């Protein structure tokens, strides 16, 4: 291992990679998270030896002991980021250092070993170099999914002594089917996502497992996503199942709930805060209640709302549905501020808009 540049990855090429014509067909309409590239990156960690065996190797199923701790106590974390095809044909990542940092923070919260940030970045870059033919052009991108889980076979409840870190890659199109202009969200009043002192700020699988019943409820009500309120007062808007949330007011200002340990610190959220400030907008990281959101939408003070995240980029929220009724935002079809922020963000990610903050990290 080289601490500064990360480890050297040995490379084992796939003996039978997907043929070019079959790959082209798969890239035509990949959807989200269904198509995977030929290879994966893996690194093992043991208490005795630390990080070792960094490899780029064929993507294949794992052999996992039935007693592996992750299967019992959910000691697992993950990340999500995208590689974009630039207009000049190159490939770039968007702020991957932020994902490396968040991965380390998640590891600390879940009592897992911290992967050096340089190693995280290198694993992703090596995988992209190997599977570069899978990076789609057009509106598509290559979604990278780094994750780490407790692989030690042991049923005692304590931090495991063995882990596997993995990166897989999936060419993707729009997260919401048909590239919807505005989505409908369901207000969960039976379930909360995260409590003070819990794991809300970490990207651990358990958070998502616990949110699925609410997501299923949302889908039953014809909604795309669920919006969660805080666990203590059941009053304050926190975030969606997999995205942060913003409101746009009639004076052009933006507001998003503050990070306080129960909300995932989104890389897109942070970029939107910066881009909006660059435009001279007032931006508030302040909590707002569901009731206030509803009242302000009714009197036209809240003009727009949008969700943001790596997968959904920036997507307007047109309607909230709730057990007590819900409400529509604006005309329900999205708004110009969200649309313009989306265009600016995508432009930076694709190399078409000046990257004033040094967010784009070219890989190839
Ligand atoms: C719960 C949750 N909130 C917010 C986000 C947005 O984070 P990011 O912009 O880093 O993708 C995600 C997606 O990763 C998420 O799962």
Can you tag this structure with a few keywords?
single chain, 364 residues, alpha+beta, D-amino Acid Aminotransferase, Chain A, domain 1, D-amino Acid Aminotransferase, Chain A, domain 2, 2 domains, 9-stranded mixed sheet, globular, binds pyridoxal-5'-phosphate
Describe the structure.
By secondary structure, this protein is of the alpha+beta class. The protein has two domains: 10-173, D-amino Acid Aminotransferase, Chain A, domain 1 (2-Layer Sandwich), CATH 3.30.470; 178-349, D-amino Acid Aminotransferase, Chain A, domain 2. The chain has eight helices and 18 strands. Strands 1, 2, 3, 4, 5, 6, 7, 8 and 18 form a nine-stranded mixed beta sheet that branches. Strands 9, 10, 11, 12, 13, 14, 15, 16 and 17 form a nine-stranded mixed beta sheet that branches. Strand 2 (39-46) and strand 3 (50-58) form a beta hairpin. Helix 3 (96-109) packs across helix 4. The protein binds pyridoxal-5'-phosphate. Pyridoxal-5'-phosphate binds next to helix 6.
Low-confidence stretches: none
Largest sheet: 9 strands, mixed
Given helix and strand content, the structural type is alpha+beta
| C-alpha-based Rg, rounded | 21 Å
As for the CATH topology of the largest domain, it is: D-amino Acid Aminotransferase, Chain A, domain 2
State the fourth-level CATH superfamily of the largest domain: D-amino Acid Aminotransferase, subunit A, domain 2
Global geometry? globular
The distinct ligands, each listed once, are:
pyridoxal-5'-phosphate
Q: Terminal Cα separation, in Å?
A: 23 Å
Order of helices and strands: EHEEHEEEHHEEEHEEEEHEHEEEHE
**Strands, count:** 18
**How many domain units?**
2
- Taken as a percent bin, the fraction of beta residues is 25-35%
**In DSSP terms, counting alpha (H) and pi (I) runs of 4 or more, how many helices?**
8
CATH class category name of the largest domain: Alpha Beta
State the share of residues found in helices, binned by percent. Answer: 25-40%
Mean pLDDT: 96
- Please tell me the CATH architecture of the largest domain by its name: Alpha-Beta Barrel
């Amino acid at each position: 291992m080289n601490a500064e540049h990360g480890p050297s990855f040995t490379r084992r090429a796939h003996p039978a990679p997907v043929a070019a014509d079959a790959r082209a067909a798969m890239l035509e309409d990949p959807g989200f998270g269904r198509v995977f590239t030929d290879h994966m990156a893996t690194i093992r960690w043991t208490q005795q030896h630390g990080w070792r065996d960094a490899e780029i190797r064929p993507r294949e199923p794992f052999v996992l002991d039935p007693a592996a701790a992750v299967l019992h106590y959910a000691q697992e974390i993950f990340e999500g980021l995208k590689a974009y095809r630039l207009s000049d044909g190159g490939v770039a990542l968007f702020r991957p250092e932020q994902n490396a940092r968040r991965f380390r923070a998640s590891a600390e919260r879940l009592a897992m070993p911290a992967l050096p940030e340089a190693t995280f970045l290198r694993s992703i870059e090596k995988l992209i170099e190997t599977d570069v033919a899978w990076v789609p052009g057009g509106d598509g991108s290559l979604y990278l999914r780094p994750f780490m889980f407790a692989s030690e076979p042991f049923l005692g409840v304590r931090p495991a002594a063995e882990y596997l870190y993995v990166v897989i890659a999936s060419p993707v199109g729009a997260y919401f089917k048909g590239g919807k202009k505005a989505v409908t969200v369901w207000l969960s009043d039976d379930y909360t996502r995260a409590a003070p002192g819990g794991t809300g700020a970490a990207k651990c699988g358990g958070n998502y497992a616990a949110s699925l019943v609410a997501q299923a409820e949302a889908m039953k009500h014809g909604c795309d996503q669920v919006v969660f309120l805080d666990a203590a007062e059941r009053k304050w808007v926190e975030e969606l199942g997999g995205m942060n949330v913003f409101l746009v007011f009639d004076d052009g200002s933006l507001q998003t709930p503050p990070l306080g340990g129960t909300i995932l610190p989104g890389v897109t959220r942070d970029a939107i805060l910066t881009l909006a400030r660059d435009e001279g907008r007032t931006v508030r990281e302040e909590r707002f209640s569901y009731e206030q959101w509803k009242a302000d939408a009714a009197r036209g003070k809240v003009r727009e709302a949008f969700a943001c995240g790596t997968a959904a980029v920036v997507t307007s929220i047109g309607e909230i549905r709730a057990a007590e009724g819900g409400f529509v935002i604006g005309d329900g079809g999205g708004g110009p501020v969200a649309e313009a922020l989306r265009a600016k963000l995508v432009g930076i990610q694709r190399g078409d808009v000046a990257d004033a903050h040094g967010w784009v990290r070219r890989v190839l």
